[in-house]
Amino acid sequence: MAMPYEVQTPIYEGPFDLLLHLILREQVDLYEISLARIVDAYLVEIEKMDELDLDVTTEFLLIAATLVELKCKRLLPEDADIDLDDEFALWEERDLLIARLLDCKTFKDAAQVLGFLFDTAVLSAPRRAGLDERFMEIAPDLLVGIDLQDIKSAYLRAMTPRPKPVVSIDHIHNVRVSVTEACEELIDELPRMGRVTFRRLTESLVERLEIVVRFLAVLELFKQGYVELDQPRAFGDIEIIWVGSPTFDPADLAGVDSYEG
Amino acid sequence: MSVEMKRALEAIVMVADSPLESEMLAEITELGVDKVDALLTELAAEYAAQVRGFQLVRVAGGWRYQSHPDQSPYVERFVLDGQSAKLSAAALETLAIVAYKQPISRAQIAAIRGVSVDGVVRTIEQRGYIGEVARDPGPGQAVLFGTTPAFLERMGIDSLSDLPAIADFVPGADVVEALEHGLRVEVVIDPTLAGSETSADDRPSLGDLLDGDQSA
Amino acid sequence: MSVEMKRALEAIVMVADSPLESEMLAEITELGVDKVDALLTELAAEYAAQVRGFQLVRVAGGWRYQSHPDQSPYVERFVLDGQSAKLSAAALETLAIVAYKQPISRAQIAAIRGVSVDGVVRTIEQRGYIGEVARDPGPGQAVLFGTTPAFLERMGIDSLSDLPAIADFVPGADVVEALEHGLRVEVVIDPTLAGSETSADDRPSLGDLLDGDQSA
Prior knowledge:
Radius of gyration of chain A: 27 Å
Low-confidence stretches of chain B: 187-216
Mean pLDDT of chain B: 82
Mean pLDDT of chain A: 72
CATH architecture of the domain at 89-162 in chain B: Orthogonal Bundle
CATH superfamily of the domain at 89-162 in chain B: Winged helix-like DNA-binding domain superfamily/Winged helix DNA-binding domain
Order of helices and strands of chain A: HHHHHHHEHHEE
Distance between the termini of chain A: 38 Å
Order of helices and strands of chain B: HHHEEHHEHHEEHHH
Number of strands of chain A: 3
Number of strands of chain B: 5
Largest sheet of chain B: 3 strands, antiparallel
Oligomer: heterotrimer
Radius of gyration of chain B: 27 Å
Largest sheet of chain A: 3 strands, antiparallel
CATH class of the domain at 89-162 in chain B: Mainly Alpha
Strand order of the largest sheet of chain A: 1-3-2
Distance between the termini of chain B: 79 Å
Number of helices of chain B: 10
Structural class of chain A: mainly alpha
């Protein structure tokens, strides 16, 4: 009985949370659920945010890319002359991801203890009454060495607007590819090609990330009904068939922007 | 003599508005630090034996009087200073990371939590639970955070060493295994080259990947 | 039953920062006023019998804990030791805000400073630099603070108009919003506490309060 898996993230807290939830609590094998569904659940959460959080979005893209890559390894036809370096690199990335997930889980569990301590501690209120007035007169004058100018500068300090937090985007300056751009490229190329293999579509690309992003773009176009996908044989090439209008305006493409790094 | 010194300690701690360190109490009473701690421990035991509605406790490196936890329903009706406002799960996790890994930068916290932490760091910093303790000597001079005495006070603990060891929380082999299984890399290099019908069932088809159908 | 209620009273009076009236204690514990007074009197006798270093006494119409008079030498040494002989930066900022923006409520100060200010307000109030000058006429009747004559004297000025002018300074939008929130124009200022011969007209107007312009 085929049952689509629904990703539920009621109190979602970032990609690690989502992954931990999926793998540990739901005992889901990530290879057997649709990446598109995780993406969807994620996008829903991102839309709930008041402002787009670049850190969260890019972090997600990174993890999604790793997952896609892991999936591709199982999906794409095997190469006799498979590059062992690539192979090791993939293992490394996977291990890195697992290490980060373990770290995240460690502190999640530690936080529960802090929560318990906190809940216990708030049951007691500290005595803060301080000195009886009879000792006040011998208490040292706290204003020693403070003059009117100090009061004025303290006032100005207090009234100066606090700096607004800015989200740093330094770390993403070298991400040259976005899913939106990849979609636009595909929309330009695919109607002319009619039917093409994914291998062919990516043969000119060098960077792994670019290939991953192209794969995401293909999934996106499939989701929106502009292409059909066919894989005639297990591990065979994936074929992409353009079924949209031959004169398609990329502006009509809906809802891909959120992927953008 | 001990009785007289206990009375002195009771009087001083009573008028303090924050936890008093044993060292300071020792200086005022001209007793040894160990003696001070011993006397205060005796006092705390007396109050407990007499089932007082208050306690003498050691918190954040000092001694203070506080209401007994089982009287919180009454005290809550009276004290409404917002101090007991709940901490969010995100705030607790961030506090846990700072508590165990201090000094630590915002970026390092974010790397562990996998999300942007600017907002939550600001919140717990404003509450006074964490503060800047140093600057990263590297380029950028990132602010490094650590927990404050207010954090210890709020958690009701005397020092960071009262927290359970972080090793206690490192996930067990079962979790590691589950993660490895969930994220396994399964590339079989077949020298005779691919296409064996036999293994096809083990692998997800493109359809599975796209619509998430999981025939199990 | 009496034991339980005595414990509740101990807890409440212990954490109160000013003497508590029997009426209020009666309300919180849902006991009669006479009963409250009787129980507290019993407690006071217990502490006396156990020669504690503190007392439970009735002062200024309310009940409070205080250090035992015969322990004054130690308490004085503690006070003179100057556990906090300098005003903290937070306390100084709070004092400055009250000086320029009076009358002002705790909540408004907290909104400007972005943190709870109960502790620092109590400190500078205890030291006699600020005091209650009015009540917010709105619901809740929040205490409104202003500086005291002692503050003016200490600063060597005659009236608030002698505070250094703050020209061309525009506070942040968050500050303006904090001040607008709950601020009432028709505040009745207690002339006995305001601390200057000058009339209320010399005090900052609402306009001053909002745009931070304090041209005297």
